[in-house]
Design goal:
The complex is a heterodimer of chains A (355) and B (1157). Chain A has 355 residues and is of the alpha+beta class. Chain A has two domains: 116 residues, Alpha-Beta Plaits, CATH 3.30.70; 148 residues, RNA Polymerase Alpha Subunit, Chain A, domain 2. Chain A is built from seven helices and 14 strands. In chain A, strand 1 and strand 2 form a beta hairpin. Chain B is of the alpha+beta class and 1157 residues long. Chain B folds into six domains: 174 residues, Alpha-Beta Complex (Hypothetical Protein Ta0175, Chain: A, domain 2); 234 residues, Rna Polymerase Beta Subunit, Chain: C,domain 2 (Alpha-Beta Complex); 126 residues, Dna-directed Rna Polymerase Ii 140kd Polypeptide, Chain: B, domain 3 (Alpha-Beta Complex); 223 residues, DNA-directed RNA polymerase, subunit 2, domain 6 (Dna-directed Rna Polymerase Ii 140kd Polypeptide, Chain: B, Domain 6), CATH 2.40.270.10; 120 residues, RNA polymerase II, Rpb2 subunit, wall domain (OB fold (Dihydrolipoamide Acetyltransferase, E2P), Beta Barrel); 87 residues, RNA polymerase alpha subunit dimerisation domain (DCoH-like), CATH 3.90.1800.10. In chain B, strands 21, 27, 28, 29, 30 and 31 form a six-stranded mixed β-sheet that branches. The chains are: A alpha+beta (355), B alpha+beta (1157). Chains A and B meet through strand 2, helix 3, helix 4, strand 11 and strand 14 of A and helix 24, helix 26 and strand 51 of B. The structure holds iron/sulfur cluster (SF4). Iron/sulfur cluster binds next to loops of chain A. Chain B: Component of the RNA polymerase III (Pol III) complex consisting of 17 subunits. Chain B: It catalyses: RNA(n) + a ribonucleoside 5'-triphosphate = RNA(n+1) + diphosphate.
């Protein structure tokens, strides 16, 4: 990296600063130089400034579907990239079933286990439209109510209960609490909805996937329950995590240390399981190995396993290939912006605490 | 829902059509010339013989043959006064399992018995003929029940016998349950296999004084005795309990009619060295001036221990020689010759051993052992009880015949009058005490409760062999691994600690024989050219080149062409003319051929090879796979035979079809192993790659596999065990073995495949602790259900008065009067599905205040007092009532069984283990975002410290990790059976690594990980992949305990002991020593007195005895001095005061001498 005043680091130091070297036995220079003045004596300033960051920072989206996305995040420190990853896993809120009211469960699966399974079902509800539930009564702004009532007739085949059979109750709970204190009172239910959620939400708040197996019922068995979903974060329980997982890897860089020709070249091409290398025809029957798709490298280290003087494997320290797999409540790109917002909030909190 | 954090771009399962591996040096060296895949024989074997077939076989033998033999031997009882009055048993058989309820017979199923605490038993039915009345008219009565016998599950008499899966399900039975146990009073009891030294065989050994001895434990139906011949100071003596002193052996020979010394020497053998060794013994006899049989008997008569009635010793010794001395050798019509020859052979073998120490017998050699199975044990018990019943009937008849009666009793009324057989059998099996005076048998712990902790635990119980020796002996001999155990007993599966090496387990293909008819075999031997001994002179017996033929320990005769005779016998066996378990063993050293058909020998099937060429060919295997051929057909066609440990010594067994190699000629190979992996037992068989582990690790895993939680049986949710641990999401191992598939562990797994990273993390992973991923736990990893049974009996007090179950009491507004009744249903029992907390009532029982009311008056509510059953649980835990079961027990009392379920997620301190003896507790639980993650986004479920590897040397675990990782990437279960690499039953590391590379992983299984906390890559590649982890039953929740102040023992006023009583933690003598050494006197004082049992006493300074404090007069008083003048107050432990008082009560006066402090 060019420093503003034009002086630069010697090559080997520059390599150490910007690359992780993946040797056959162990990676080296994994942590990089944190201190901005590490090379001050050499006249190189490696501090991060906002302008520098703005100039260098880039995001390139490679793939984007409803469920997952892959994008490159270039020009950022590992700690910040990691912060996004951590926030995605643990701090972006979602809705998940938290309370289950069992009316009847004669299936072989125990109540607690059934509730646990229900909790892990991803819901198609935008958590931004809801509040966290505190001590107050569940209402339409913090709770989604589902009902499950399935039974398997005597004498019929075994039945598989799928998540699609969870029925959204926009009007709130239908279960009544113990007998009313005074007759004439309305039967109290476990929620007090002010209005139907149908009015507040433009799409039905169903489960995201209809084919998740919840339980199996034998003839004569039945399940009747009501499930209340609330807002929460993955830190508390993994069921609230909005991502199946989110992670990044550093951009691979594969360098040929010397010219590799003919037989050796073919051997090298054959070694790589993901075809990182290719053959270039030099004419006159001469062939040469070239690095064609370094990005595909999975770091299996096959190319350096037996001889490590041909190829060097490196990782670009500030280039992250970031993958987000959403569980479905929000599209992955929204999740990322949410994560950014949360980080921003945290920063603001720190600043306000300090000032 | 799988616990593993989701793996992104999870590879789609591909067929993974790998090219056949490139031939390497090893694959060429493993000599599989034309590899016939013989593996299919194993499942076929298990189908016919089953995992616990030896138990079932032996019990079947007993109920079909043994019981009939017993009754036939004792089939007639007659009145002593009038032999005309008799009863004769014509037939005996076992009926269908049933129970008598109010004069009705109802058939029962095993599961019904488990749930209702009944005994699963069937009637023992006899057909009898007896005399009635004064005229002694003969009466016949078929189907007469003399008692009920507990029935082994899956035996012929069991309702489950021969049922298929669907039918078993209808009976509420798990199809994978092997059977082979009994159900007595609702508990499942196994009669363990008992190991014994074989009976009726000569054992040459040295005793503890270093003397050479030849001993025989004789055992026939009538007598059991032990004969020892011993060489002391170069003279040979007979030791027998019936004689006070050792008897010179030559005297014994003379007493049996061999009067000349020459004859004795001839019988022993003509070799002059024998004569030299016998010289001193002969001389001793001569100095005693014993030359004739008469003199010898007289000499012996003097040494008899107990004279018979009237103190007549005369002739006793002859009887002893006939009935006790080597009792299994019969004396017919006073012909002592067989006994003489037997003694001579014993002598000869002893002298051989002196001349050549190679010929000593090894007591630990498995061929010298016999295993006693449940059939034999129950048979002994039954024989005893049957005889007892008959003698009892005879006694009663005699008593009655004294009285003049109009209609004399007949036996049929007497034999059933009490349930000797029913209660005797039931008591023995349920207590495990085999006390049979008639056979001098006193054994404890013969039967044990079948452990249902895991499927493996119960299978392990069924194959366990318990030793007969006391366990405290320090000798290493019997504990060491015997080479002859190969293939018969599992080399790994033995407990640690005192029973180490003594308690063993059967290997996978072992079969234990049952008795076989002797007569036809004996005749066959003679027709094959065995010369009868009675026709031979002493000289001829040991003629060079001819071998003695021993049949079940008896000398049958001799044969001039031993090898030919043995081959003939084996041909007969292979063609099925004689039983498949008859063993023919040519002992070159002893010049003997041993034919054995007795029960209790261990044997295993092997493929017969002709000159090294396997008889089992590919077309046979194809027929087997197509279902045309069964395992028995292989036996019948002479392709496979059973060899016992002795006969194995005549065989050369190759692991695989073999070419000439390592100096072994192919043509000399006689048998080929079916599968090398059958060397292990059931429990050790679930370890992957055990042949790569350090051997004790496999042993540890065998102990731990039995503690792992998982699925127990298909009917686990309908069982009523007192404690049941289940894993919520049990999985089958990714890295399996063939044994796992054979025994059904893949259907009833006890663990989960966890993605493990081998690295250090956080410092909470020292000493084998593991770090767990919280998200994995959230998603269900290691989640388990603990079900506990609470039983309440509603007592009956007679007169129709009994306990009652009351509705939960409510006040006028319908509110419960007590909060802890909230879990109750309206009927007074706890409601299934209710959450039940500590101190909640689960059965609202009431007991009548008085139990002897005048009949007729009804009890009112006021006559009852509350005696509810209160649940004692852990505060803050949510437990749920799973089921409530009502049944009436055998005494017709109402029994209420509440099963309370607790679902637990792993917490810090819970114990986990892999399948390689690597146990560890959960050290800490870490958020997923803090966990490292790989290039592919995989985040481990748990982190294990690499320090667990170097000292344990469990390479198998590393290979399991590699294989598991390859397995998940290519979508094929990988195998790791023991010694399976050459035969393809285990994947080779090289192939696994290639699969890994193909799917983008490193060849060595190490991944490039990023730190979850800092975000940068870790400085090392980390070995990561799935390993099958077991959750063990030891959980913190059941063990954690602390208390401040709490309950005290009434007597000593010291804090109670033990967690269950909320006891204190003891400051023991060692801790006290530490404090003394440190000089922390105040701390000792505080711990031992103030925090324990401080007490204020009044001491009389004058007499030194304890006084008392009179609260009314506010003075202390000495009751000894009768005044209160010299009283002093002091503090001492209450236990100390108690001691003084107790001493006083024993007339010891403890006086305290006080000084001013
Ligand atoms: S490390 Fe593996 S994937 Fe990367 S270039 Fe080398 S062989 Fe190819």
């Amino acid at each position: 990296m060019e420093s503003p005043d034009g002086s630069s680091l010697p090559d080997f130091l520059e390599l150490q600063r910007t690359r992780v070297l993946c040797k056959a036995d162990a990676p080296t220079h994994t942590e990089g130089f944190q201190y901005s003045g590490a090379f001050a004596a050499m006249g190189v300033d490696t501090s991060v400034s906002v302008e520098k960051f703005c100039k260098n920072f880039k995001i390139e989206i490679n793939r984007l579907t409803d469920e997952d996305m892959e994008f490159d995040m270039i020009g950022i420190d590992a700690s910040i990239a990691n912060a996004f990853r951590r926030i995605l896993i643990a701090e972006v809120p979602t809705m998940a079933i938290e309370k289950v009211f069992m009316v009847d469960n004669t299936s072989v699966i125990a109540d607690e286990v059934l509730s646990h399974r229900l909790g892990l079902i991803p819901l198609d509800a935008d958590p931004r439209l809801f509040d966290y539930i505190s001590d107050d009564v569940p209402n339409e702004r913090n709770t989604i109510v589902y009902k499950l009532h399935v039974s398997c007739e005597k004498g019929s085949q075994r039945l598989t209960v799928k998540s699609g059979q969870l029925e959204w109750l926009p009007e709130g709970s239908q279960l009544t609490m113990a007998s009313p204190a005074q007759s004439g009172d309305n039967q109290r239910t476990y929620t007090s909805f002010g209005q139907s959620q149908q009015n507040t939400s433009e799409r039905p708040l169903d489960v995201k996937y209809n084919d998740i197996t919840i339980a199996r019922l034998g003839p004569g068995q039945a399940i009747e329950l009501e499930a209340h979903a609330v807002k929460g974060v993955g830190k508390v329980h993994a069921k609230w995590s909005p991502v199946a997982t989110a992670w990044y890897r550093m951009l691979p860089e594969v360098v040929l240390l010397k010219e590799i020709k003919n037989g050796d070249a073919e051997e090298l091409v054959k070694k790589c399981p993901v075809n990182v290398f290719d053959i270039e025809d030099l004419g006159k029957g001469e062939k040469r190995a070239v690095v064609a798709k370094p990005r595909a490298c999975t770091l299996c280290r096959e190319c350096v396993r037996l001889a490590d003087d041909q190829v060097e494997l490196r990782r670009v320290r500030d280039h992250f290939i970031f993958t987000i797999e959403s569980t479905g409540s929000l599209p992955p790109e929204v999740l990322f912006t949410e994560a950014v917002n949360i980080l921003e909030e945290k920063c603001e909190r720190v600043i306000s605490e300090l000032s | 829902m799988p616990p593993a954090t989701s793996a992104p771009d999870a590879p789609v399962a591909e067929g993974d059509a790998e090219a056949p591996p490139v031939p390497t040096y090893r694959s060429l060296a493993a000599p599989v010339s034309n590899p016939v895949d013989k593996f299919a024989l194993l499942p076929a074997f298990l189908k016919v013989r089953g995992l616990v077939k030896e138990h079932i076989d032996s019990f079947n033998y007993f109920i079909t043959k043994g019981i009939k033999n017993i009754v036939r031997a004792n089939n007639r009882i007659e009145a002593r006064s009038d032999p005309g009055i008799y009863l004769e048993y014509k037939n005996i058989y076992i009926g269908e399992p049933s129970v008598q309820v109010d004069f009705r017979v109802e058939t029962i199923t095993p599961h019904f018995c488990r749930l209702t605490d009944r005994t699963y038993s069937a009637p023992v039915i006899v057909d009898v003929e007896y005399t009635v009345g004064k005229t002694h008219a003969k009466h016949r009565k078929p189907s007469f029940t003399i008692g009920y016998m507990p029935i082994m599950l899956r035996s012929y008499a069991c309702v489950l016998n021969g049922k298929d899966e669907a039918e078993l399900a209808r009976y509420g039975e798990c199809p994978l349950d092997p059977g082979g146990y009994f159900i007595v009073k609702g508990t499942e009891k196994v009669i363990l296999i008992q190991e014994q030294l074989s009976k009726n065989r000569i054992i040459i050994d040295t005793d503890n004084k270093g003397r050479v001895t030849a001993s025989v434990t004789s055992s026939t139906h009538e007598v059991k005795s032990k004969t020892v011949i011993c060489m002391d100071k170069e003279k040979i003596y007979l030791h027998l309990n019936q004689f006070t002193k050792p008897i010179p052996i030559i005297v014994v020979m003379k007493a049996m009619g061999i009067e000349t010394d020459q004859e004795v020497v001839q019988m022993v053998g003509r070799d002059p060295r024998y004569g030299d060794l016998l010289y001193l013994s002969i001389q001793e006899c001569a100095t005693e001036r014993i030359y004739t049989q008469q003199q010898a008997l007289q000499y012996m008569d003097d040494k008899v221990t107990y004279a018979g009635a009237g103190n007549i010793k005369d002739g006793r010794s002859k009887l002893i020689l006939r009935d006790v001395f080597v009792a299994h050798v019969p004396v017919n019509n006073g012909n002592f010759q067989p006994k003489c020859i037997y003694t001579a052979v014993m002598l000869r073998r002893m002298l051989d051993a002196i001349l050549n120490s190679d010929t000593f017998d090894d007591k630990d050699y498995v061929g010298n052992k016999r295993l006693e199975l449940s059939g034999q044990l129950v048979s002994l018990l039954f024989e005893d009880l049957f005889k007892t019943m008959n003698t009892y009937a005879v006694d009663r008849m005699n008593k009655n015949s004294d009285m003049a009666r109009s209609s004399p009793l007949d036996f049929s009324q007497l034999i059933m009058q009490q349930d000797v057989i029913t209660s005797g059998l039931e008591r023995a099996i349920s207590t495990g005490n085999w006390d049979i005076k008639r056979f001098k048998m006193h054994r404890k712990g013969v039967s044990q409760v079948l452990s249902r902790l895991s499927y493996m635990a119960s299978l392990g119980y069924m194959t366990r062999i318990t030793p007969q020796f006391e366990k405290t002996r320090k000798t290493s001999g019997p504990r060491a691994l015997q080479p002859s155990q190969w293939g018969m007993l599992c080399p790994c599966d033995t407990p640690e600690g005192e029973a180490c090496g003594l308690t063993k387990n059967l290997a996978l293909m072992t079969h234990v024989t049952t008795d076989q008819e002797e007569g036809p075999l004996r005749n066959l031997c003679f027709s094959l050219g065995v010369e009868d001994l009675s026709l031979l002179s002493g000289e001829e017996i040991h003629a060079p080149g001819s071998f003695l033929v021993m049949f079940n320990g008896l000398i049958l005769g001799k044969h001039r062409q031993p090898q030919r005779f043995a081959n003939n016998m084996r041909t007969f066996r292979r063609s099925g003319k004689i039983g498949e378990f008859v063993s023919v063993f040519v002992n070159e050293k002893q010049h003997c051929i041993h034919i054995a058909s007795d029960g209790g020998r261990v044997c295993r099937p092997l493929i017969i090879a002709d000159k090294g060429r396997s008889r089992v060919k590919e077309h046979h295997m194809k027929e087997l796979r197509d279902g045309i051929r069964s395992f028995d057909d292989f036996l019948r066609d002479g392709l496979i035979e059973y060899l016992d440990v002795n006969e194995e010594n005549n065989a050369l067994i190759a692991l695989y079809e073999h070419v000439d190699q390592d100096g072994v000629q192919r043509s000399s190979i006689t048998h080929i192993e079916i599968e090398p992996m059958t060397i292990l037992g059931v429990v050790a068989g679930l370890i992957p790659y055990p042949h790569h582990n350090q051997s004790p690790r496999n042993t540890y895993q065998c102990a731990m596999g039995k503690q792992a939680m998982g699925n127990i049986a298909y009917n686990q949710l309908f069982r009523a065990d007192s404690l049941l641990y289940l894993l919520v999401y049990a999985q089958r191992p990714l890295l399996t073995t063939k044994t796992i598939e054979l025994v059904g562990y893949d259907k009833l797994g006890a663990g989960q495949n966890a993605t493990v990273a081998v690295m250090s993390y956080s410092g909470y992973d020292i000493e084998d602790a593991i770090v767990m991923n919280k998200s994995s736990l959230d998603r269900g990893f290691g989640r388990c259900i603990a079900m506990k049974k609470y039983t309440v009996t509603s007592e009956k007090y007679g007169d129709g008065i009994s306990d009652r179950i009351a509705k939960p009491q409510r006040d006028r507004d319908g509110v419960l009067i007590k909060q802890n009744m909230r879990a109750l249903d309206e009927d007074g029992f706890v409601a299934p599905g209710q959450i039940i907390r500590n101190h909640d009532i689960y059965v609202n029982k009431q007991t009548p205040k008085v139990t002897n009311r005048t009949p007729g008056t009804a009890l009112t509510d006021r006559d009852y007092r509350d005696s509810p059953a209160v649940y004692k649980g852990v505060d803050g835990e949510t437990t749920v009532v799973d089921r409530v079961m009502l049944c009436s027990d055998t005494n017709d009392k109402l029994t209420i069984k509440c099963i309370i379920r607790h679902t637990r997620r792993p917490e810090v301190g819970d114990k986990f283990s892999s399948r390689h003896g690597q146990k560890g507790v959960c050290g800490t639980i870490v958020q997923q975002e803090d966990f490292p993650f790989s290039e592919k986004g995989i985040c481990p479920d748990l982190i294990m410290n690499p320090h667990g590897f170097p000292s344990r040397m469990t390479i198998g675990k590393m290979i399991e990790l590699l294989g598991g990782k390859a397995g998940v990437s290519c979508g094929r279960f990988h195998y790791g059976s023991i010694f399976g690499e050459p035969s393809g039953n285990a994947d080779k590391v090289e192939d696994i690594s290639h699969t890994l590379v193909k799917h983008g992983f490193s060849y060595s299984g190490k991944d490039f990980l990023y730190s979850g906390i800092l975000g940068h890559p870790l400085q090392a590649y980390v070995f990561m992949g799935p390993i099958y982890y077991q959750k063990l039953k030891h959980m913190v929740l059941d063990k954690m305990h602390a208390r401040a102040s709490g309950p005290r023992v009434l007597l000593t006023r010291q804090p109670t002991e033990g967690r269950s009583r909320d006891g204190g933690l003891r400051l023991g003598e060692m801790e006290r020593d530490c404090l003394i050494a440190y000089g922390a006197s105040m701390l000792i004082f505080e711990r031992l007195l103030l925090s324990s049992d401080p007490y204020q006493v009044q001491v009389c300074r004058k007499c030194g005895l304890l006084g008392y404090y009179n609260y009314k007069l506010k003075t202390s008083f000495c009751s000894m001095c009768k005044n209160g003048e010299n009283m002093a107050k002091m503090r001492m432990p209450y236990a100390c005061k108690l001691l003084f008082q107790e001493l006083q009560s024993m007339n010891v006066v403890p006086r305290l001498t006080l000084t001013e402090g």
